[in-house]
Design goal:
The structure holds 2 protein chains of 2 kinds. By secondary structure, chain A is mostly helical. Chain A is built from 16 helices and no strands. The radius of gyration of chain A is 23 Å and the shape is globular. Chain B is an alpha+beta fold. In chain B, strands 3-2-1-5-8 form a 5-stranded mixed sheet. In chain B, strands 4-10-9 form a 3-stranded mixed sheet. In chain B, strands 6-7 form a two-stranded antiparallel sheet. In chain B, helix 1 packs antiparallel against helix 2 and helix 3 runs antiparallel to helix 4. Chain B is elongated and about 90 Å long. The chains are: A mainly alpha, B alpha+beta.
């Protein structure tokens, strides 16, 4: 919590009801900005923890043969890396952005349910303490993959209960966060702001929140069945007792696929905010963007089978899931085309948020292409469970979701702190990240196609070269992220003062830019009128 | 590190120059490009795993794998085509519509129903073009009828069991990572994997199949989910406990040889160390191999040869030859013995592993001794 003090001083006391003094400000926080800050700091810490695990993975894979860790620990690293990054880094950072920005964007004084907001945040440190402490119990951390497939997951020791309890807590936290987002957006919009006038970031979060409420209970149910299978002798997924291991996969991916979109829809919202600002031109086809997000959300419920083509599936189901999956490319394509049209005949400048948004545009699209390829069932039999899949989902998650989060931080940080950050360092961070992320993940396409399975600690020697390249990219990418932390800390501590509009030369639209920078502790005490 | 530091300094020196929009550190980009070029050349050299060139799918040796490759390339080139158009427009915009070159934004350009309908319909058409041949190929993949040889494949942590049916009925053995790889792969073994032929891709006893024959695999598992995969056959399917999944392939005549793959579903600690090796022989050579195997099994299970009272028990004498036990004996496990009549040497058959507790565990779990011996 080294940054607390800094954030504290950044907020000053120049408003009627300033923040409480001391640790109580954070423990009993009900202010959407304080809670948003805690979410963001928490997710940054988790990003570095999950990143450290990724470094262990890539260091072991630097060359063939086992050099650093035992296979069992390697499996713990791959599993925990995924759980920490998904539930600890990406999801909480989006919730943090929602907390900070939704009241500012809809013209509300705070989130609708501030005490629940506090609760939903403070569950998370406990959840992750439980999850991460499983690394130190006998038998170690979960090692069966973040998908927790039985029977493998159930072979574990103490971690079974710890991981499941942690997942329950994360689910509860996400559901509460989502309820808060929905209630705030539905009830606290400024007079005159009808839904279609609402900023795209709020729209994307509204839809994401419904997805979360729909699927987090499904995950909770699935892991609870694992729990009773392990400790109470039930046989939900135990074939010997008449259960069905494939059933778990169905239930899990019914959660898991919407989860994929939970991690990308808010990113779409962010990109839809940033591109128009730095293109100095309204978002092209804003209404169709909303429809596209809604159709992606709907389709996400009927494509789960594409994760399990090789696990045995009736012919009709294979064809159905292939078609429905390919269909997602249509609304996603509409979004990419609309973004491109937003750039067209604009007047572009390349500040750090714009650079990250543009990088998102290119690299997320590459992830989309490999996604279409993976949807083609017959060839998926070759791609499935290889590094091609790893490359695909990292392209949509790292230069996709994570770059969008970084873009959002660089976009709104001056609004949050009142200070401009170092443009030079931020651009260095951008270029290093963009170059190394490709060095890291692009060769993994080759590895997968050439036949390297995923989740293996050691590999045949013909995969040596690309693995080494990928590892070099990983170390470069990992180290570059230190710059990100440096830029943020510097900016929180001080710097050139930002104006209310922050991006003076650009044309940011939205209510958040009508407030001074930093935004007052209570955002809109008098609701603004929206024409 | 030096490169990173250099580029940081480089950018820091421009901190004030926001108008110098790009702030590009060319050193890092050059470094990345050089690395990639080096590897493309390097990788093309040798690839014992499969017929892949090191960065693309293998074309393979079955009609299915060849169709998969063709479909893969078709979809790939469609994606490249779309990428060229979309990225082309993006890059053109980035170059042409920069504020620094005086671009004036056209703020009236907010919406066009006509254009939006076009870029919704066109992708649908492209997707249909991809989906039709794909659906056709799924039908072929799923058609396991009229197979000429069926083999039951059972996954264990961490080995495969092959039980032949049809004409080769009775042949039954385990296939495990070869010993030299297994020693070299241990943490701190001090052995360079590059000195081991087919590191991690060789087994003590490969699956033997005839070429030009439709082979059907029936996959299941005794513990966790595994996946049997040989890229050159275009054949991958999960082995799930409580389920029997089907899979077929027919290796083209004239393509006899050794084909390799790996377990493709995370199955615990040694997931990375349970390769699949298939020895494809001509139908005649296969027939000969089957006879040898049967003769050897008979010899191994006959009371005289086994020379132990327990060997006469029904378990050991059954057509399955009490196989986990037999497979567990050192002689059978040794690579030299695979497929040669010598494997049933009296010494081996008399080894305690055959007659004793191991034989009693013919229920399917390999005897513990077998693991130790390997």
């Amino acid at each position: 919590m080294a940054q607390d003090h800094a954030v504290d001083s950044a907020h000053h006391d120049d408003h009627d009801h300033g923040p409480a003094r001391g640790i109580g400000r954070w423990l009993f926080a009900t202010n959407h900005k304080d809670i948003g800050t805690m979410y963001l700091v928490f997710s940054l810490i988790m990003f570095f923890i999950g990143g450290a695990m990724a470094m262990v993975i890539r260091a072991e894979l630097f060359k063939p043969g086992l050099q650093l860790v035992q296979p069992e620990f390697f499996n713990q690293m791959t599993t925990m890396h995924a759980l920490v990054m998904i539930f600890g880094a990406v999801m909480p950072s989006f919730v943090g952005l929602a907390n900070w920005m939704i009241p500012l964007q809809v013209g509300a004084p705070d989130m609708a349910l501030p005490r629940m907001n506090n609760f939903s945040f403070w569950i998370l440190p406990f959840a992750f303490t439980i999850l991460l402490s499983s690394l130190f119990v006998p038998g170690g951390a979960p090692a069966g993959g973040w998908t927790m497939y039985p029977p493998l997951f159930l072979q574990g020791g103490n971690y079974v209960a710890m991981a499941i309890f942690a997942v329950h807590l994360m689910g509860a936290s996400s559901i509460m966060g989502s309820i808060n987002v929905i209630v705030t957006i539905m009830n606290m919009r400024a007079p005159g702001m009808n839904l279609l006038k609402m900023p795209l970031f709020c729209w994307s979060w509204l839809i994401t929140a419904y997805l979360l409420i729909a699927v987090m209970p499904v995950l909770a149910g699935a892991v609870t069945m694992l729990l009773t299978d392990h400790y109470f002798g039930t046989s939900f997924f135990n074939a010997a007792g008449g259960g069905d291991p494939v059933m778990f996969e169905h239930v899990f991916w019914f959660f898991g696929h919407p989860e994929v979109y939970i991690m990308i829809l808010p990113a779409f919202g962010i990109i839809s905010e940033i591109l128009p600002t730095f293109a100095r031109k309204p978002l092209f086809g804003a209404t169709s963007m909303i429809y596209a997000i809604a159709s992606i959300a709907f389709l996400s419920f009927i494509v789960w089978g594409h994760h399990m083509f090789v696990d045995g599936m009736p012919l009709a189901a294979q064809v159905f899931f292939m078609m429905s999956t390919m269909l997602i490319a249509v609304p996603t394509g509409v979004k990419v085309f609309n973004w491109t049209a937003t750039l067209w005949r604009g007047s572009l400048s390349f500040e750090p948020p714009m650079l990250f948004a543009l990088s998102f545009l290119f690299l997320f699209t590459i992830g989309g292409f490999s996604g279409v390829m993976l949807a083609i069932v017959p060839v998926d039999f070759q791609y499935n469970q290889t590094y091609f899949v790893v490359a695909h989902f990292h392209y949509v998650l790292v230069p996709g979701a994570v770059f969008a989060i970084m873009a959002a931080v660089y976009y709104w940080l001056p609004k949050w702190t009142g200070n401009m950050y170092s443009m030079g360092l931020a651009k260095a961070h951008f270029w290093l990240s963009t170059i190394f992320v490709n060095v890291l993940f692009f060769p993994q396409h080759f590895l997968g196609l050439a036949g390297m399975p995923r989740r293996i600690p050691d590999y045949a020697v013909q995969f040596s070269d690309w693995n080494m390249v990928s590892s070099i990219g990983a170390f470069g990418f990992g180290l570059s992220q230190i710059l990100f932390a440096v830029v943020i800390i510097q900016c929180v501590r001080g710097g050139k003062k930002a104006s209310a509009e922050v991006w003076d030369g650009a044309t940011p639209t939205g209510l958040e830019w009508t407030l001074p920078s930093p935004a007052p502790y209570h955002s809109f005490t008098i609701a603004p009128e929206v024409k | 590190m030096r490169v990173i530091k250099a580029s940081v300094d480089h950018c820091a020196s421009r901190r004030r120059g926001i108008d110098r929009q790009w702030g590009f550190p060319p050193a890092v980009a050059l470094f990345a490009a050089a690395l990639a070029a080096f590897c493309l050349i390097e990788t093309a050299a040798a690839n014992p795993l499969n017929t892949s060139n090191g960065y693309n799918l293998p074309i393979g040796v079955t009609a299915l794998s060849q169709s998969m490759y063709a479909l893969h390339m078709e979809v790939f080139w469609i994606c490249v085509g779309i990428a060229v158009v979309v990225f082309g427009v993006m890059i053109y915009s980035l170059v042409k519509f920069r504020r620094s070159v005086g671009a004036i934004p056209d703020t009236t350009m907010v919406h066009s129903t006509k254009v939006e309908i076009v870029w919704t319909i066109v992708p649908v058409i492209i997707l249909v073009v991809m989906a039709v041949p794909a659906a056709d190929l799924i039908l072929k993949q799923e058609d396991t009828r009229n197979s000429e040889l069926s083999i039951r494949v059972t996954g264990y942590q961490w080995k495969w069991q092959y039980q032949y049916m049809d004409a080769a009925d009775g042949i039954d053995f385990f296939s495990t990572l070869k010993q030299d790889s297994n020693f070299a792969r241990q943490l701190g073994s001090g052995t360079d994997p590059k000195t081991i032929p087919n590191y991690l891709l060789d087994v003590d006893k490969p699956l033997v199949i005839p070429s030009g024959t439709k082979v059907r695999l029936l996959l299941t598992s005794m513990d966790v989910i595994h996946a049997w995969w040989v890229p050159d056959f275009g054949a991958k399917r999960s082995a799930v406990p409580g389920f029997v999944n089907e899979l077929w392939f027919k290796v083209d005549a004239g393509k006899e040889g050794i084909y390799r793959g790996q377990c493709a579903a995370l199955c615990g600690r040694d997931h990375g160390f349970m390769p699949v090796v298939v020895d494809v022989r001509t139908p005649d050579a296969f027939k000969k191999w089957v006879e040898e195997q049967k003769a050897a099994a008979k010899q191994a299970s006959s009371p005289a040869a086994a020379g132990s009272p327990a060997a006469g028990s029904p378990a050991a004498g059954s057509p399955v030859t009490g196989s986990p036990a037999a497979a567990g004996s050192p002689a059978l496990a040794s690579p030299a013995a695979a497929g040669s009549p010598a494997l049933a040497s009296p010494a081996a058959a008399r080894s305690p592993a055959v007659g004793s507790p191991a034989a009693a565990t013919a229920s399917g779990t390999p005897p513990p001794s077998a693991q130790v011996l390997r």
